[in-house]
Amino acid sequence: MATPGLETQGQQDLLAHAMGPQAAEASIRTAARAEPVAPDTESVAAQYRTVAEQLAAPAAVPVPKWRSIGPWTVPGGQTYGASRVNVSGRISAIAPDPSNPAHVLVGAAGGGVWETDDRGASWTPRTDDAPTLTVGALAFDPSFPGTVLAGTGEGNFWARLGAGVLRSTDGGTKWGSWCTAPFVGQGFYDLVFDPTRANAVLAATTGGLYTSTDGGASWTVRRGIQTWSVAVSGSGEALAACQDGLFRSTDGGATWNTVALPGAATSFRRFAVAIAPSDPTVAYGWATDAAGTAKLWRRAGGAWTALTPPPSVDVGQAWYDWFLAVAPDRADQVYLGAIDAYRGDLSGTTWTWLAISTKGPGGDSIHPDQHTIAFEPGAPDVVYVGNDGGLFRSPDRGVTWEHLNNGLEITEFEYLSQDFGSSHWVLGGTQDNGTNRWTGSPAWTHVQDGDGGDCAVSRANPDTVFHTFFRMSPERSDRRGEPGTWQSVPPPVPNGEGSLFYPPLETSATNGATVALGGQALYVSRDNAVNWTRLAFPTEGTASAMYIPHADQVLVGTTAGSLFRTTWTGTAWSVPLELGTPRAGAWVSDIYADSTNTDDIWLAHSSMGGGRIWHSTDGGSTWTDRSAGLPPLPLNAMEIDPSNHERLWVAADLGVHESTDGGNTWHTFSDGLPNALIGDIVLHPHARVLRAGTRNRGVWEVPVDGWPAEPMCGTQWTGTLAGGQTQRWSTHDWPATWHVLWTIMPTTPRPGSPQLRWTVQVERSAGEYITYGITVSNLTTEPVSFEGRYAILSLY
Asked: Torsion angle, CA of 80/86/87/92, rounded to 10 degrees?
């Protein structure tokens, strides 16, 4: 099972996947080691903003409208106390309304701003059409509570998608862009209004420390180094926690001076600062240095002193999860967040620490990986905490907890898979919220813990399903993924051999029991992962995408742009053959090959700066770039219509796009789809729905041909029965997802009494197909001719 939390390397893999090799390296440094934002990040973010604005415009070609299928909530989620509670997805910011305690805004990492008017009993998304759905900070203006600012770009991870500051003047219901420069491509950690100066705002971002004197419309950089936290007291003092230490200002943030801290390092991995609301002479600093040593300081009066952090605190993911807060009414009570959360209480000269997020038997628990904390105005006992599992509230300062995750549709999906024999069955891997399954209910079933990676369903036997945690860690269930039915089926990976954090996992797209898992070598099984064969790549590479057109062939693409193919010879798998590549060095994100002509190949790339979807009709010897007309963003997944190979869809980081002429031209296919990053798309060929797994906005679906306006009716066969005769007709290969009614209609007129009687029997002839047996009896003594008619009420 995966360790709770998202590993640094996993974030590196995902950043590299989205940004391409050169840009990725810079972003990895920013995220993992807190160095300044890469210089090219601004231009990349500007492209995302442009595409988001284009998607918000009416589509040039009328297309069906997407709808959400949740998760509305995930009961029994990944928490570790005496009982499981509901989860949603990563919360990066919380802002209770200072004028109305029941009104709260939250920011999801990549899922936008959400609003509640009933303390979290219900939620509404408010920024689905914004230039970016990434949110790092939220702040109400205490002088004008109807005014709220949102800092886009989540500093913890989605920094590169920052598009500036959004503003609402109606308390968070409607939002508009307030400023872009200088924040395009930066991520926010903190955003604070100065209560002593009208329209004064301070911001802590991946790019530095900024101040504004006009309510956030324009900004001045005060320190051009990564800043994580800002605190302003009622006396006008400001403190800022930066990569190179703690700084103080008493002139509204115009000038900043170093604060000497006992035992402090010269560089930090993460740092937060807070001033006690009840006593501005008291302040705290909570940090970890480059060596991973936890540091805690307190100022009471003038001098700063070092304190001993909680003994069990784990700061190994400090770059990703961190918070600090002081109780509103008690200067001697402090809250620390890292992977877990703690409350410290000072009595005399002694500190007592209580682990408040993960308890033993009999205690409440919330999800690990803590990102943000807030208090209900006027009720200092009531604490809100946001983490990788969503939003949680404690009425008693962290002793007990309740989740607020019903209706908060912000789960971050990495991959999707589906049962072709059911229109209401989807399996999805999610970031730090395990693997979850949808069977038609808005509440999804949590079927396995850990980081949910790639997943797959056997087309030959959909009872057999697979998922991974991270790295080369597949599990199989032979009971459709029911909780408790998973068994580990790892391949024999040699020590030291690596893979992506979420390596590609595939089952055959058509027949058989072939399964493949790709790392720095290819692992293939022909018996549903009971036995594995390791196949070394002829040139060094790390698998990033795979496709199995039929049980006897596997295609593998790598992060370096290589494409390999192996074929079953009847007794063994062939040595992987390197096919021609259309773009060396570009990350292969998806592959498709026609099962009846595997030389017909489509290839997608997620690296920007070149062609991103290619077509070959000669097994990779030559390629045609089909990217013209697509936005200049990473392409993460594609689907080809099996009933019309000229029709295909691609998922870019933002938006889904459709071609009906084999990729010669493209149009947007995103009506109703939020501007969230899309990690995966899957087409259900029988139900005719396309589904998209998004980063922090759950799963969405669209009927690619529109929902049928009326039943589809026709005649399947004609027949004649002699008087008193009974005969049975069979009709095969009807998709199991279709709702079909059968009618036997006499064509021989004979008034006076019923002529025919029929019964319908159903056989599930395969995992996704049905055979209907219709037995017809002639109730008369004369021959009767008839039609066997069908009415397809729904494909779904």
From this structure: -90
CB 153 within 8 A of CB 52: no
Q: Strands (DSSP E) along 653-725, which ranges?
A: 656-659, 667-668, 678-684, 689-694, 699-703, 712-721
> How many residues are listed for the chain in this entry?
796
Burial readout 753-789 (b: 16 or more C-beta within 10 A, e: otherwise)? eebbebeeeeeeebbbbbebebebebebeeebebebb
| pTM for this entry | 0.93
Token pair 């496709």 is at which residue?
547
Query: What pLDDT score was predicted for residue 360?
Result: 57
Q: How far is the C-alpha of 476 from the C-alpha of 653, rounded, in Å?
A: 30
Q: How far apart are CA 622 and CA 465, in angstroms?
A: 36
Kindly tell me if the per-residue pLDDT of 22 is higher than 70: no
- Split at pLDDT 50, 70, 90, the class of 358 is confident
pLDDT band at 765 (very low <50, low <70, confident <90, very high): confident
What tens digit of pLDDT does each residue of 323-351 get?
Answer: 999 999 999 999 999 999 999 999 999 99
In sequence order, what are the residues at sequence separation of 6 or more whose Cβ sits closer than 8 angstroms to the Cβ of residue 796? 423, 687, 688, 689, 703, 707, 737
CA-based nearest residue to 548, from 568, 575, 533: 568
| 91-97 and 67-68 beta bridge pairing | unpaired
Residue 367 vs residues 128, 251, 446, 453: alpha-carbon distances, Å: 25, 40, 14, 18
- Residues 38-87: pLDDT tens digits? 446 788 888 888 998 888 888 788 899 999 999 999 999 988 767 789 99
Over range 281-300, report the average pLDDT: 96
786 and 744 in contact (C-beta within 8 Å)? Answer: yes
Find the DSSP H helices in 349-501. Answer: none
> CA-to-CA distance for 119 and 111, rounded, in angstroms?
19
Could you give phi then psi for residue 32, rounded to 5 degrees?
A: -90, -30
Alpha-carbon distances of 461 from 128, 420, 507, rounded to whole Å = 38, 10, 11
d(CA 699, CA 442): 11
Q: Please state the rounded mean pLDDT for residues 451-477.
A: 96
Write out pLDDT tens, residues 172-190.
Answer: 999 999 999 999 999 999 9
Sheet of strand 201-205: strand arrangement: 188-193, 201-205, 208-212, 220-223
Strand, helix or coil for residue 12: helix
Listed residue (265, 335, 262, 258) closest to 303, CA to CA: 262
Phi-psi region of 161 (alpha: psi -120 to 50; beta: other; left: phi over 0): alpha
Run of H or E including 26: helix 21-33
DSSP letter at 225?
Answer: S
**Locate tokens 């072939």: which residue?**
514
The rounded distance, in Å, linking the Cα atoms of 44 and 653 is 12
pLDDT at residue number 79: 81
- SS3 label, residue 113: strand
Match 């790392």 to its residue by tokens.
Answer: 519
% the chain with pLDDT above 90 = 88
Task: Please give the structure tokens belonging to residue 662.
Answer: 């084999």
Q: Is 252 exposed, middle or buried (0-12, 13-18, 19+ CB in 10 A)?
A: middle
Return the ∠ at Cα 37 (arms to 33 and 42), rounded to 5°.
155
Residue with tokens 């002793």: 399
Provide the mean pLDDT of the chain: 92
Q: How far apart are the C-alpha atoms of 642 and 724, rounded to whole Å?
A: 45
The closest alpha carbon to 112, from 88, 93, 86, 139, belongs to 93
The amino acid occupying position 463 is: D
Look-up of token digits 């494409």: 563
Q: Which of 666, 564, 641, 651 is nearest to 605 (CA)?
A: 651
Peptide bond into 703 cis (omega under 30): no
d(CA 781, CA 748): 13
Q: What is the pLDDT of residue 40?
A: 65
Beta bridge partners of 285: 273, 297
Would you state the structure tokens that stand for residue 216, as one six-digit string? 């956030």
